[in-house]
Every structure is written in C-alpha cells, then in structure tokens.
Specification:
The complex is a heterodimer of chains A (149) and B (666).
Chain A: E1 8-13, H1 17-26, E2 35-40, H2 49-56, E3 61-66, H3 77-95, E4 102-106, H4 112-129, H5 133-138
Parallel strand pairs in A: 1-2, 1-3, 3-4
Helix pairs in contact in A: 1-4
Chain B: E1 4-9, H1 21-29, E2 34-40, H2 46-59, E3 63-68, H3 71-84, E4 92-96, H4 98-102, H5 109-128, E5 135-138, E6 142-146, H6 150-161, E7 165-170, E8 184-185, E9 190-191, H7 192-205, E10 209-213, E11 215-223, E12 226-233, H8 248-252, E13 258-259, E14 268-269, E15 272-273, E16 285-286, H9 292-296, H10 301-305, E17 318-324, E18 326-329, E19 333-335, E20 352-354, H11 355-362, E21 383-390, H12 406-420, E22 425-430, H13 440-449, E23 454-457, E24 460-466, E25 469-476, E26 482-488, E27 490-495, E28 497-499, H14 503-510, E29 537-539, H15 549-567, E30 571-574, E31 579-581, H16 597-601, E32 607-613, E33 619-626, H17 636-640, E34 646-648, H18 653-663
Parallel strand pairs in B: 1-2, 1-3, 3-4, 6-7, 6-18, 7-10, 18-29, 20-27, 21-22, 21-27, 22-23
Antiparallel strand pairs in B: 5-30, 8-9, 11-12, 12-17, 13-14, 15-16, 19-28, 24-25, 25-26, 31-34, 32-33
Helix pairs in contact in B: 1-5, 2-3, 5-18, 6-7, 6-15, 11-12, 12-13
The chains are: A alpha/beta (149), B alpha/beta (666).
C-alpha cells in the first residue's frame, strides 16, 4: 500500500508568511506538495471557523502562520490571532478535535527555509497520525472514498 | 452565470518544467462557469496580456484567473490589463503556480494535481468576487506642524515653500526649541543661533505659515486629508497686536527670581518674560503660575508701565478649530536632570550640571556670556570632568538605548572648554565613542589629538565633594580596570535624551503608536521612517528617537515631502480592499447588533458608531460603520464580529469559504 499522503491546508497572511513561501520558491527549496495555501490580508482576519470548515472538507492537517510578534503589518493582528488560537485550542480539546493536527507558527518574509521546514514537519507528523477519519465520519458531507496518494 | 477565463502561464519553463500546463488548462476548462481556459508561454508579455484582453471582449468574461507567478509580483499588471479591456480589475485574481508549486516541488503527477487544485480554488473565489471601485477621499491642503524646534521649523518651511498652507503650533512662548539653547554645533563649531534664528524669522514672515506660540493641541478628529483639530491658545495676558515688544515690562516686573527655562535654571527671569532675546515672536507672556497679580491679586506694575497699554489680565485661553489634511509631529525630546543620578551627586551640588546646562554656560547669550564659570561661585574651573552615557545604555536606569548625540556633544564641550580655558584640564569618561557621521570621527580625534582632551574608557562610580573639590571615582578599563580618581572643579553629565513628558498622552490623542520609552513609533523601521501607523500623520526629529540636527532636518524634509506628495492630489485614491458593515432593508437595517467589539479590535480606530434614524429623527438602531479613509484592510474586525456583519472586500466570507471548500474536493 502506498504511503498515506495527508491533505494540508495553510492559512497565511499576505505580508509575512505568503511572502516567505514566495521566497521558498525563489530560493528553489523543495518541500512536500501536500500543502494548499490560502491567502489572507492578516492572521487577524482568520476566522477559526475556517479551520473547522477545512477539516469538514477533508483536510488532515492545518497550518496557520503569520508575522512574528511585533512584526505585524497591521500592528496587532497576529496578537489577536494568537490570543484567539489559545481560546480555540482549549475549545478544540474540549469538543474533541485533535489539536496535534493544527500547527500555529510565525514565518517572516525572510524565512523561506523555515516555511519549507514547517510544511515538511507538519506533513510528516500528520502522516504519522494518519487520515483524520474521526472527523470525516461525523462531517456533514463525508468525503468520498479515495486512495490516499 | 459566471464566465471565467483561465490563463495558465508557462513562465518560459519555470512552470512548465514541473507542471503539465496543457493538462491543467484542459481539466480546469471543464469546470462549471469556465468559459475559456488556455495556456501560453509568457502571460505577462504583451501578446500574453492581449490574449486575456481579447478573451474578455470576445467571450464577455465576468472574471479572470491568471495562473502564473505570485500575486505579489504581477497582480497589478494583470488587473490593469483587465481594466483596459473593460473588466473590473478586482474581478481578476491570480493562482500562484510558480513560487508555491513549480519551483518547490518535483516534476510529477502530484505537482500537476496541486496546480489544478490551486487554480480551481481561485476560480471558485472569482465566482464570488464583487466589482469594486477605488475609494476617493478629498484632501484639505493645510498641514499642522506640532512643535517649533528645528525639525518643526524645517518641515513648516518646506511644506510652505511647496505652496501649501501650514499651521505651526509651539507650546512655549517662542519657537526655536533645544537648538536655540545650544552654543556651537558639531562638527563645524558654527554658532547655533546664527544658523537657526534666520529660519525662525523666515517662519514668522512666511505668507503660507500661521504661527501659534504658547499653544497646544486640544483634540483631533477625522482622518487622512480630513482632520479637524482643536488648538488651545493659552492666554498670554497681552494683546499681541498692540504690543510693540519694547520689553519695558520685563525690566519693571518686580518678580525677578524665577529660574529661566531657556538657561536651564542657570539664570533668572521675570514673571512677564521673553524667553530669550532672539525669540520669535519677540513679545512677552505673563507666566500665570508665577505672576504676583495672578497669585496674590495685587501688582499690575507691568500694566502701569506698558506704553502701548497691551497688558490684558482678563485674557482667557482661546480654542480654535481648524481643518487640516496632514499632521507633522515634531515635538522633540527632553534630557534627564542631574537628580536622576544619586551616584553622581543627586542634583545636590550646583557644579554638577547637565550637558544642556553646559551649552548655556558656553553660549555667548548665556548667563555667563560665554565664559565657563562654576554655577556655585563663578570661578573658572581648572579641572573639568565630562561623563558620557549618564543614564543611556543603562538597563538599571531603564534606558537601555544609546542617546546618540552625547558622544559628539561631549567632544564638543571638552573642545570648547579647552578653547576658552587655556591651561585647563579636561577628562571624558566614556563607554564607547560612537561618532558615526560625516566628519564626526575626525571631530572627536581633533578633541583628543589637537586640543588635548583626556579620554578615559570606563564608567564613573561616584562623584562626591571633599575639601571644595568634586571627587570623581571611576575606572580605566583600558588599563585593566585601574581605579581612577580625579579632583575636579566641575562635572558635566551627558544625561540621557528621553521622550517629552506629555509624549504618551499626545500619542494617544493622535492614535500614534509609541515605543516602551514613549518615543513615537514609525510605521516601518526601515522603509517608512517618517510615517506613522495613522495615515496622514508624519514624524520629524527627536520625537521618534534621539536625533542630531542634520538628521532632524533630513527627517523633517522627508516628512514635508510626504505631505507635499499627499497635497499634490485633489482626491486620495485608495485600494478598496477595506472592511464594510452590511446594510439591509428596514426594519433590520443591518445584521450588526451594535456590540462594537470591532471598535476595540481595530488598530486604526476606523470604526465609528452610526445612528440609523427615521424621518422624525428618532434613533432606531446604532450600528458600526467603517471609515474608508482610516481602514487599512487588515480584517481583524471580521474575525471578531459575532454576527458576521462586517466583511473585508476582496476577502469576504463568501470568497474565502468558497476557496476552502474548493481546495480539497475534486
């Protein structure tokens, strides 16, 4: 059986992590192709319902990444995101969502290598956890059976 | 029904080397709503752009997806091309196949599949995109400059000379700031007043500049291009229009023994006073806190003697309201006083003074007419010690930063002392000499090599009095921390430069960020050094960080250029990617329930309360409203909103959810 290829969705801010991922590209640093990036103006915009939606749609793991503390293009959006993540994480723990599948990190526009590293480690750790079948079983719209990878 | 055009770029071989572009175009072409899907070698080239334009016109496209490089690179290019073909530019989006796919993955099925997924999500997003129009706001072409030091003066003159009106306010009775207090300036040793006072006069006489001295900012409202500021003109107790500035009142005032701020307490002034002879405007004010009439109800001697009958004891503070389009903050800095240093005498000994006090002693217009004399007994000090970094770079004092100007002015002080007191001995205790700047290091070398100033690398631990001498104890770290003890007649502390006392309050009033030391924060430490986070408010000089004169002037001219750029337009055009609160038909009006969580989350204070009224003028509902002039489009409010009533254009709920829903479902 082929190795399980997790589906990873990344929610990133335009100014730091998106630009950082661009730098990964211009530096030609290779990383796992499992990740799909969604661009936001700021991590402060990221409504955590979107994370649940991504799981709902069949994601096995999620990355949220923005500017480092004090580097936010909009002064404080990343602090709001971080505070919200603290609350959201407790909620996830309470309702039984596996927070090991969500990676919260800071990647600056100069950290192309760090972005590749985060994607690779997240893919590896989610691969170890296996497909998120628990969520898929209760999802409103069950994802059709498919061979992973 | 959506008609989306998808244009896959090969980027030469940058994308096509690892992604099967033809296959992507073929698969995507079968999706609902995709009217045309094709691939081409260079989409950003003229023929490539023409392909897009032609398709828009011929197929009547409602949206365009260009799958090529990062939108951070070519989004403006393709949006412009779409606009030229008659499609709203915000109906064009890009899928990042190069930086996020072809360059970072190996050639193969999985990479092509990822490219298809990326294009599909953007197609779904574009289906939900809305046409947006650029935002236009009018501009009031008058600038407010706060602070009349060299930075404020320079900014005012530059803006005024570019043809725009300037209102300059200064809290003291005269403009001039700290620079007017200085004796000579490094590294040229030219007289500070000689270069400054002509500028001060120019400000007063400039037809485009309105000068309000003894005035402070009361409140501010509005946004870039459209501020409304209230200015408090403190009562001067004289009628400026009648006063001739003869100065008779200041010689007759019996209340003479008040420490002069201009002379840093080394001289006295009267209660009715002109801060210094070259003051602009050169008309006196009555210090209400000191005047005998105001404090005891009797005196009025100035009124009796004034030949012009210009004294007005009944004058009150006046508040004026003016519309301005931009604001330059040039409020400067303050220096720590000697009582900040218990180990260095705790402000107890009159002959331990600050660098700024030494400037007054060395100045020809100072209390000693430029002779270096001890404040205690007027004797000329035979041995003088300068202590650099008094407070600066000292975590224990709460000032870890370098005050930047002290190395240079300490070298200047020692040099001036050597020039004025022949045969005198001068010592400088320093940590490091930071003389980065044109001709700066040469200047310090001159002090050491030509004027014979003794530089000792090490810190001073104590200064105390013994037998009429000031004993300075320190260490020479270049001699293995050998203890050094100097019997001095006078000690000058290069005390730390700090933010002005009211800086924090002013920053809060203007919604400008500030650092832990209450210096105003620039919008970006490298690329936006004169902007603040509040659009339309700029910084000049030492209110942002300790700065010397050339830097303050350069920064002021930079800020003035920004203001002139802003005023070169009649209307400001901004990207419409900002937040909006939804509006619905009565009786709901908006799903906003008026909790105003968004208001507390917004870093730009862009959210206002709007009252929805009926025809009788009764308030039916209070809802949030976004000020398009202030909103920067971060979307923090969106994630805060409990009822999903606020949305960010270009990243609406519909758009991002449809993106996420299309990501994984094929």
């Amino acid at each position: 059986m082929a190795e399980f290829e997790p589906k990873i969705v990344a929610f990133v801010c335009n100014w730091c992590t998106y630009a950082g991922a661009d730098l990964t590209g211009t530096s030609r640093i290779k990383y796992a192709s499992n990740v799909r990036i969604v661009r936001f103006p700021c991590t402060g915009r990221i409504d955590y319902m979107l994370l649940l939606k991504a799981f709902d749609e069949g994601a096995d793991g999620i990355i949220v990444s923005g500017c480092h503390p004090n580097d936010c293009h909009y002064t404080s959006g990343n602090f709001h995101a971080r505070r919200r993540w603290m609350a959201f994480r407790s909620l996830c723990d309470f309702i039984g969502i596996d927070t090991r599948r969500i990676k919260f990190s800071w990647v600056s526009a100069a950290e192309g290598a760090k972005w590749a590293d985060i994607v690779n480690t997240t893919v590896a750790s989610v691969r170890e956890l296996g497909p998120y079948d628990e969520y898929k079983k209760v999802a409103k719209k069950p994802v059709k059976e498919e061979s992973h990878g | 029904m959506a008609k989306i055009g998808v244009f896959i770029c090969h980027c030469g071989e940058n994308i096509s080397a690892t992604v099967d572009c033809a296959k992507v175009a073929e698969v995507v072409g079968k999706y609902d709503g995709v009217a045309i899907s094709l691939d081409y070698k260079y989409m950003c080239s003229d023929p490539g752009q023409n392909l897009i334009k032609k398709a828009i016109v011929e197929k009547g496209l409602t949206g365009v997806v260009v799958a090529s490089c990062s939108p951070r690179m070519h989004e403006p290019t393709f949006r412009k091309a779409c606009a030229e073909a008659g499609l709203n530019p915000y109906m064009c989006e890009m899928a990042n196949l190069r930086e996020h796919c072809s360059w970072v993955h190996e050639k193969g099925e999985a990479t092509t599949q990822k490219a298809i997924d990326l294009v599909r999500t953007i197609v779904e997003k574009v289906k939900h995109n809305q046409s947006l129009d650029a935002i236009k706001v009018p501009v009031t072409k008058t600038a407010l400059v706060i602070g009349g030091g060299i930075a404020g003066i320079q900014a005012s003159l530059d803006i005024a000379n570019s043809g725009h009106k300037v209102i300059l306010i200064e809290k003291d009775p005269s403009i001039g700031g700290h620079m007017s207090q200085l004796s000579e300036t490094f590294p040229t040793l030219d007289c500070s007043q000689c270069i400054l006072t002509p500028r001060m006069v120019e400000v007063a006489q400039h037809p485009n500049i309105t000068l309000y001295t003894y005035a402070e900012l009361e409140s501010i409202d509005g946004f870039i291009g459209n501020f409304k500021v209230k200015i408090r003109k403190k009562a001067k107790s004289i009628d400026e229009k009648i006063c001739t500035g003869c100065g008779l009142c200041t010689t007759k005032c019996p209340n003479k023994k008040n420490p002069s701020e201009f002379n840093e307490g080394l001289g006295n002034r009267t209660a009715i006073y002109v801060p210094f002879p070259q003051a602009v405007p050169n008309k006196p004010v009555i210090d209400k806190a000191l005047c005998t009439y105001y404090t005891k109800g009797k005196c009025k001697i100035c009124e009796k003697f004034c030949p012009a009958h210009a004294i007005r004891f009944d004058q009150e503070d006046e508040i004026i309201e003016v519309p301005v389009g931009a604001i330059v903050l040039a409020t400067g800095f303050a220096v720590k006083k000697t009582d900040f240093f218990p180990e260095y005498g705790y402000g107890r000994h009159p002959d331990i003074i600050t660098g700024l006090q030494f400037e007054r002693l060395a100045s020809a217009s100072g209390p000693t007419l430029g002779e270096i004399r001890r404040p205690s007994d007027g004797k000329i000090p035979e041995t003088i010690v300068f202590v650099a970094c008094a407070g600066s770079r000292d975590e224990a004092k709460g000032i870890p930063y370098c005050s930047k100007i002290c190395c240079m002015y300490t070298a200047k002080h020692a040099m001036l002392y050597q020039h004025k007191v022949h045969g005198g001995k001068s010592y400088v205790f320093y940590m490091d000499i930071r003389a980065g700047g044109k001709m700066y290091d040469e200047f310090v070398r001159r002090a050491i090599e030509e004027d014979g100033v003794n530089y000792i690398r090490g810190r001073v631990s104590r200064v105390y009095e013994k037998n009429g001498k000031l004993i300075v104890k320190g260490a020479d770290t270049l001699l293995g921390a050998m203890p050094v003890e100097i019997e001095a007649d006078m000690v000058v502390l290069a005390t730390a430069g700090v933010a002005n006392e009211g800086a924090e309050e002013l920053a809060q009033k203007l919604h400008v960020s500030y650092d832990p030391y209450h210096f105003f924060a620039e919008a970006h430490p490298k690329l936006k050094p004169v902007e603040t986070n509040t659009a339309g408010i700029f910084l000049a000089g030492a209110c942002q960080a300790p700065r010397d004169i050339p830097e303050s002037v350069a920064m002021a001219s930079g800020a003035a250029a920004k203001v002139a750029g802003l005023f070169s337009q009649d209307e400001l055009t901004r990207e419409p990617l900002i937040a909006v609160v939804n509006r619905q038909a009565p009786p709901v009006f908006s799903s906003c329930v008026g909790c105003f969580l968004c208001m507390s989350a917004c870093p730009y204070h862009a959210i206002e309360k709007e009252e929805i009224k009926n025809r009788q003028g009764e308030v039916l509902k209070t809802v949030a409203k976004v000020n398009p002039g202030l909103c920067q489009g971060c979307g923090t409010c969106v994630a805060f909103c409990r009822t999903k009533s606020i949305d960010i254009q270009g990243y609406t709920h519909e758009e991002v959810y449809s993106e996420v829903m299309a990501l994984l479902n094929d």
